[in-house]
Every structure is written in C-alpha cells, then in structure tokens.
Design a protein that fits this description.
7 helices; 11 strands; Nucleotidyltransferase, domain 5; alpha+beta; three-stranded mixed β-sheet; OB fold (Dihydrolipoamide Acetyltransferase, E2P)
C-alpha cells in the first residue's frame, strides 16, 4: 500500500513508482480498475487507455489490462487485499507528523504480515512466495518521474522541440525524429530511445530554453553536426558569460575588430 495526498495523475504515477520499488520488479501485465487516471473513457477491453498512463506503461514495460465492468470476480484478489489493508493497516487511530512517517508505519506492518501469513497456493509464507516470484518479474528499470502530460513531438532543424508554448533544445542527432515530452512536477523531461535525453524547468517565464551542449558533437550517418562558432560567435559568447558589471570595454573593442 502506497499513500498519496492526491488522486490526480501525478499522485497515481507516484504510487505506481512506490509500488514497483517495493515489488522489486515489473510484471508483464498490470490489471487496473477503470479510473480516469488509467482509462480515459469506456471500460474493460472497450476502454481507451489514458494517453499519459499509456506513455508511463510503455516507459516501464508493462501491458495495461483494464478490468471488465461489473465483474467483481475478475479482480477478487485485488479487492481482497484492499479489505485486508483496511482491516490490518488502518491508520485512523494513529497520529503521524508527515506522509513519510505514515508510509514507514504502513510498510513495517505490511512486511510483518507477509512474513507470518501463509499463501494457500504454495504453503509458504507470503514473503517466501513473493521471493520465489521475483525471478519471473522483469528487472526494475529507471522509473520515470511522475508526469501529468505526455505528448510526442518532432525535433525541428534548429534542434528545438515545441511544448506548452515554449521551445526546448535537444541534441542535434535527434533532428527529424519524434521524441516524447513529459510534463512533470516542476520540470520537463524529453525522452528518446527509452531514456531522458534532456531535462528543463517547467512553466518558466522564458519561452526558449537552450542547452549549448545540444549543438556539440560529431556528425552521424543521418545528421551533420552544426558548424562550429566563428570568431564573432566565440567573442559574443565570452561577453555573454561575463557579468555585465565586469565586462571590460576591451571586450567590446575586440568584438568590433572581429566585425571589421
């Protein structure tokens, strides 16, 4: 059981990350109820998976299996564990200073129960049965930071990606390709090839965010590297990197010499 202060998309995916870390791996199929954070509309096999949740499932590596509507027997084990959690992990009589304290208390009780309770299918404790199942789980990947927006965007010739009325630079080798942009809490992550290739702050007053390293490197078979800065560009870069109150007049004079 993983606690969250909210039931929005960020809270939903944060709980997923917490659950997978505790599980120690990723099962091939994740059966979910038909909540809006998982199923945008419809239900069961006829439901449309929430685009953000679909992107998360693709990044982590599991298949989304929505429960059929009005068929409680298809999710009986899950519902049984929910009832178990409410009975054995009821925090209503306790007081906690922080959400982390509540989570630590819950984890301790859940671990203690798993080491005592017997799994009917194996005759071993729940903990021992779970340890045997670990070898059948996919290795835990680098879990993506929870996000509430996930879109696919092209990388333009100037190495820029457009998202939320802003432009973000990515390495030039991705020009002409599609990348996935995640809107996280306070930051923007740009994904390609199953990894984060660039990360920027989100909702900034600036509309264009550039990382000069995106324009460095060797050409590839598909993309030519951007031409290096000339004398004028290098001089201008030196000036920009110097605080205004410390810029000597000689720098501007040298710039004028280059411009001649």
């Amino acid at each position: 059981m993983v606690w969250s202060r909210s039931e929005d998309q960020l809270g939903w995916l944060s709980c997923h990350n917490g659950a997978y870390r505790r599980l120690g791996g990723v099962a091939a199929v994740n059966r979910v109820d038909n909540v809006k954070t998982a199923i945008a509309h419809g239900a069961g096999a006829w439901g449309a998976i929430n685009d953000t949740y679909r992107a998360y499932a693709r990044a982590v590596g599991f298949h989304v299996d929505a429960c059929p509507p009005r068929q409680g027997n298809t999710k009986g084990k899950v519902e049984a564990k929910v009832r178990l959690g409410r009975l054995r992990l009821d925090p209503s009589r306790e007081r906690f200073r922080t959400l982390e304290d509540l989570q630590a208390w819950t984890d301790e009780l859940a671990d203690g129960w798993a080491r005592r309770a017997v799994c009917p299918a194996t005759g071993l404790t729940v903990w021992e049965s779970w340890e045997r199942e670990l070898e059948h789980l996919a290795r835990l990947p680098l879990l993506p930071e929870p996000f509430d927006v996930a879109v696919t965007r092209p990388v333009h010739r100037d190495c820029m990606v457009y998202f939320e009325n802003r432009q973000y630079a990515v390495p030039f080798i991705y020009v002409g390709q599609q990348v996935e942009v995640h809107g996280c809490a306070g930051r923007v992550q740009i994904w390609a090839g199953g990894k984060v290739i660039r990360e920027y702050p989100r909702h900034t007053p600036e509309r264009v965010l550039i990382d000069p390293d995106c324009y460095e490197g060797e050409s590839t078979e598909r993309v030519l590297a951007p031409p290096p800065l000339g004398r004028m560009g290098r001089r201008m870069q030196e000036i920009l990197q110097t605080p205004v109150d410390r810029r000597p007049i000689d720098l501007y004079a040298a710039l004028m010499e280059v411009a001649r």
